[in-house]
Amino acid sequence: MKKWWLLLTFFICWNITGFALFDIRLAQNATATIPENISGIISTAPNITEILFALGLEEKISAVTSDSIYPPAAAKKTKIGNFWQPDIEAIIAADPNLVITLGFPLYPQQQNLADRLRRIGYTCLTVFNTEQIDDLFDAIKKIGLATHTQQKANFLTAEIRNEIEHMVLLTKETGKVRVLYVVQREPLRVAGTETFINEMITLAGGENAIGPTIQKYPPIGTEQLMLCKADVIIEPTMGQRNSERLQNNAVEYWSRYKNIPAVKNKIIYVVDDDTISQLGPRLHKGVETIARCLKPELFETPEQ
Amino acid sequence: MKQLLTKRKLIFQISLAFVALIVIMLACSLIGTQHISIKSVFAHSSASNSINPDYEIFMHVRLPRIILACIVGAALAGSGVVFQVLLRNPLADPYILGISSGAGLGSIIAVISGFSWTLWGRSPIAVFAFIGAIGTIWLVWFIGRLTGKSNVTGLLLAGVVVNAFFSAVIMLLISVTQSSKVYSTIFWLMGNISEEDIFVLWMGAGFIIAGTIALFYISPQLNAISFGIDDARSMGINTSRVQLVAFAIAALITSIAVCLSGLIGFVGLIVPHGVRLVFGPDHRQLLPLSSITGAIFLVIADTLARTIIAPAQLPVGVITAVVGGPFFLLLLIKSAHKTSWFNR
Predict the structure, then answer these.
(1) May I ask the CATH class of domain B61-338?
(2) Alpha carbon distance B323, B341 (integer Å)
(3) Contact predicate B60/B195, CB 8 Å
(4) Pair A160, A284: CB distance under 8 Å
(5) How far apart are CA B154 and CA B160, in angstroms?
(6) Considering only CB atoms, which chain A residues are within 8 Å of B34?
(7) Inter-chain residue contact B199 with A108, CB threshold 8 Å
(8) DSSP one-letter code for B87
(9) Of the candidates A10, A89, A116, which has its C-beta nearest B210's C-beta?
(10) What is A173-296's CATH number?
């Protein structure tokens, strides 16, 4: 029996020592203020990198993720892993005084990274908490505030808004086109109504062929597909090149659903989604890409 | 014929294994994606004004992570031994009675309910996973008891069915909730060793060390149980009490390991078997050596996981299976004829 008491005593002492030595109120410095002089910024996502470049902060960026390929200058910066698996050691080694991370619930790794960095004492700025276009403007504003480039941030926001407004005016006249934005084929997943892609489709003069769903990128069955009456089907290339082969492949795949208007009229596009599937400062280009698919007649140059 | 286990021999073996563990932990803390030298780690630590990246990486990233891998590995391997002897089944591992799906269900409920507090530095996901794990194993134990006091088959079947049932509930919840919310659970369930706050490590280590020592205390009784419940009873051992204590402690330390790092498979299955193949089935020796070997194994596996495809990282479960599996099979072929699975 004695050894059990000994063990109990040891265990209680251990825990008391723990409470005495270490602070229980952890990560209280989560609201640490952003330093006055930003000298080394780390971006943990390609769209954050784009915003930083658009705000003219190239000199102050000390490292970016390996998938930050736009603008081309970003590819020359030090790398800290890709955005879904940032390497915390590389981040510390780059000696930043501001780390900007994504708040998307879709990428918990980013949240996890920010928590870990904050615990060690680094300053993190989290942008993009939802997946809405407004969140882009919010992010630009936040980054502008933190890096003392508010003016440029306002300019950038105004510019993007202008371009989008232009696109809305251009496409508003003709009727709404029903669009199916296919994220993945097997099983079939499309962009739902709660996504920024849905917003972009609306801005480009279309409407989502799929009605409201619980999930953001819902899997849909054949029955629903038959009833969606999509006029246009858009598939992203997801970074793959060789678009001609992808295009043929897509037409062949969709030919099995003969009674969808888009298939009947062969209006199936495989588009480079670089500007579409990320919320970045080239958003208006993405809207334009979609608009070109929906209403190509508006973009034909009159001279020809 | 193996030599008898003397106290001196046991102490010698345990201390040797312990020294090996310390050496390996130190060696692994010098390996990583960024090159750091021990000299520069301690060079600037006195001058606190300037940030020394080497010091930050060593003290705040690598060391906590290695300590976490160490305590989780020890907990899983130690409880693996206990589940194997209690269930008298070589396929048993710490997750066999539904801890995994219970933890999964708990974490999904936490995500859906959207809490955002922390308890002792643990997120609601971890806390709910812990509650789910403990609750599930209590439920399985309770159902198992209804089928008969020493009915191992009843317990195992209850575990399998509860596991399947909770997995189905998890799938149901995943398909009716907004998918983006659930992603954080999937990420978490995959098993994730990353650096933790020192206080969390300290408390976790306290539970796991105390639990392992307690299991070591009852290892002579576990030896008797491995001969068979009736034999143990005829030796004057209160078998149901020993079973309950061993079961409760093993479940507790497994749940703590799950709470600290999600679900890491394979350690609790192959480490006890490996140690048993090499050192024999005496639990006085098997328990402490399995715990220490489990710690060593997970520290090495995690070091590989974070360096092998650097700067990206592999889930540590991949390494435990890919490296541990073939190694274990080799051991199995070489030494299976020398030893029996239990004391039979």
Answers:
(1) mainly alpha
(2) 23
(3) yes
(4) yes
(5) 10
(6) 89-90, 92-93
(7) no
(8) T
(9) A10
(10) 3.40.50.1980
Residues of B in contact with A214 (CB under 8 A): 176-178
From the list A254, A116, A230, A115, the residue with the least C-alpha distance to A179 is: A230
Cβ pair B56, B48 in contact under 8 A: no
Closest chain B C-alpha to A190 CA, distance in angstroms: 13
Beta carbons of A88 and B310 less than 8 Å apart: no
Q: Is the ipTM of this complex over 0.90?
A: no
CA-nearest of B237, B234, B215 to B294 is B215
Which residues of chain B lie closer than 8 angstroms to A83, CB-CB? none
- A50's tokens: 């784009």
Domain with CATH 3.40.50.1980 in chain A: 37-148, 173-296
Q: Is the CATH number of domain A37-148 3.50.50.60? A: no
For the record, the structure tokens of B10 come out as 């046991």
Reported as a single tens digit per residue, the pLDDT across A116-169 is 888 788 888 888 887 788 889 999 998 998 888 889 999 999 999 999 998 888
Map residue B114 onto helix, strand or coil.
coil
Separation CA A46–CA A53 (nearest Å): 11
Distances (CA, A) of B231 to B16, B224, B226, B234, B287: 34, 7, 9, 5, 21
Tens of pLDDT, residue by residue over A233-290, are 998 887 666 777 888 888 888 888 888 888 888 888 888 877 888 888 888 888 888 8
Tell me the sheet residues that pair with A81: A86
Q: What is the pTM of this model?
A: 0.83
